């Protein structure tokens, strides 16, 4: 019976080491939020500050899209794929319209050149 008590003691010790020591190690190793930024060279700091607004805007768009997608009964990834297909189709339609407009302008220019000669 004595060996079982020693085994349970070891198991409790390993459990405490993993449950307390793991998070304590992560807390000790993880740098503070501003500490990493201070280690950047000045050029990277400047660029990071310049692009901050763009990153915040992109994040806000992403969150708003996720909120919109989550209102559906379907899974988010399916709704996102459908939205991506719609956007792709819209871009293709816009590109086709622009191509048609360019072609009509070219045709008008050709007619104007032919009439001018």
Automatic annotation (TrEMBL):
Pfam families in UniProt: CBP4
Stored InterPro entries: Cbp4 (IPR012420)
Chain intervals for the UniProt region annotation (Disordered): 92-117
Key words of the record: Chaperone, Membrane, Mitochondrion, Mitochondrion inner membrane, Transmembrane, Transmembrane helix
Keyword Ribonucleoprotein: no
GO biological process: mitochondrial respiratory chain complex III assembly
Membrane topology: Single-pass membrane protein
Gene Ontology CC: one annotated term: mitochondrial inner membrane
Family that this chain belongs to: Belongs to the CBP4 family.
Entry function: Essential for the assembly of ubiquinol-cytochrome c reductase. It has a direct effect on the correct occurrence of the Rieske protein, core 4, core 5 and apocytochrome b.
Name of protein: Cytochrome b mRNA-processing protein 4
Native species: Cladophialophora immunda
